Amino acid sequence: MTVAVLGLSFTSQSRAEEWKQWRGPDGNNHAAADADAPVRWDLERGENVVWKTAIPGRGHSTPIVVGEHIFLTTAVAEDETQRLMKCNRSDGRMVDNWMIHRGTLPDRIHSNNSYASPSAASDGQNVYVSFHTDDAIVVTSLSLDGKRNWQKKVADFRPSRFQFGYGASPILVDDLLIVAAEYDGADSCLAALDTRTGRIAWRVERPSNLNFATPIATTIGGQHMVLLSGADMINAYDPATGKELWRVDTATAAICGTVVWDDRRVLTSGGNPGSGTWCILGDGSSNNVQWENNVKCYEQSLLTIPNYVFAVADTGVAYCWRTMDGKQMWRSRLFGGGISASPVLVNNRIYVGSEEGKIFVFKASPDRFDLVAENNTGDSIFATPVPVDDRLLIRTGVGKGAQRQEYLIAVGVR
Question: Residue 206: which CATH number?
Answer without folding.
Answer: 2.130.10.10
